[in-house]
Amino acid sequence: MLVSTESSAGATPVIPLPNPGEGGPVDSGGGVPVIPLPNPGEGGPVDSGGGVPVIPLPNPGEGGPVSPGSGQTPCYYCAGSPTGLVRFLNAADGYVPFQIFVNNWRVVRQLGYASLTPYGYVTEGFQTVSVVGQDGYVYLQKPVPFRANDTATIAVINTAGGLDLLQIADATCTRPYGMSCLRMANLAWDSDPLDLLLRDGRTVFRDVRFKEVTSVVRVRPGSYAFYIAETEDNPTPRFQDIDTLERAVRLPLRDIELSFTADIPADTTTTIFVLHRRGSDDDDDLETLVVTDA
Fold first, then answer.
1. DSSP state, residue 21
2. Where is this region: Disordered (predicted)?
3. How far apart are alpha carbons 193 and 234 in whole angstroms?
4. Where would I find the beta strands (DSSP E) of the chain?
5. Are 109 and 120 in contact (CB under 8 A)?
């Protein structure tokens, strides 16, 4: 029922009250815009009008992990315990950024090329990992085994038949205090076997083929100049640690595909991911992503 009153002046319009359930602010008539409340079920914050951007809440059913805050590990898919740790790497050139899902949970909305997510928890067992385009097109769905207390990187890679997933174990290495560990992963599709050389010409890893991940070698902390090359040299004996040399010590290098530098801190494990250079049609055109984990 509408309730109204008469104005003392007799000529002022009367603003009716809303019907029950209609709610929302009523125009004051003073020329100030009125911000309507959302309809039932719409939800989401309302712009205050103060010029501060409003971040909308997700629509019902969108779901996905929520950041737990600084310094904490997110939960990518936790339907029970125990759990393992996983992160995702986009090593597939030629695509727009991917969405990654674990079962029906979206892990990341936009994973660009040569990008890496932080680690997140996933319940052990076989879980379905989906690689999805921004338009919702499903490029790949694949069951992947997750093991309790294990740590892994799952790389999205190019293959002759399209996309595939490569699961890489990220177990910590045994090293004396103050030393570090180094390994290399060749994720450059259709590349020749590759070597990793030091600036002085010593071979650290030899003939690393596509989808191959080397074992680790111990390395002294410091700044290194590395080369990716194709040689016939044998690697440095495994019992020898990799260390820095005087800048004046240089040996002739050949068949160099790529040069780069890396700073290796103490008590860490560094992985050199070799990728195809984005946008290049040359199979031998490479780039690297150097990742250091404590």
1. T
2. 1-27
3. 13
4. 75-77, 83-91, 98-102, 105-111, 120-123, 125-132, 138-146, 151-159, 162-169, 180-186, 194-198, 203-208, 217-219, 222-229, 256-264, 269-276, 286-293
5. no
Task: Tell me the two tokens of residue 190.
Answer: 């259709």
Residue 184's nearest CA partner among 269, 262, 267, 274 is 274
Q: Is the dihedral of CA 207, 209, 213, 219 positive or negative?
A: positive
* DSSP structure class, residue 242: B
Q: How far apart are CA 118 and CA 75, in angstroms?
A: 11
d(CA 26, CA 123): 51
- β-bridge partners, 229: 195, 256
Return the ∠ at Cα 108 (arms to 103 and 111), rounded to 5°: 125
Count other Cβ atoms within 10 Å, centred on residue 151.
16
Cα Rg of the chain, angstroms = 28
Q: Rounded distance, CA 83 to CA 127, Å?
A: 12
Beta bridge partners of 128: 143
What CA–CA distance (Å, rounded) separates 157 from 164?
A: 5
The Cα–Cα gap between 72 and 163 comes to 31
- In which residue ranges of the chain is pLDDT below 50? 1-10, 34-35, 42-46, 48, 51-69, 237-239, 244-251
Please report the pLDDT score of residue 106 as a whole number: 96
The pLDDT value given to residue 30: 56
- Are 150 and 131 in contact by the 8 Å Cβ rule? The answer is no
Alpha helices per DSSP H over 217-294: none
- Choose among 193, 203, 211: nearest CA to 227: 203
The predicted-structure confidence for 33-45, as pLDDT tens digits, reads as follows 544 555 555 444 4
What pLDDT sits at residue 282?
72
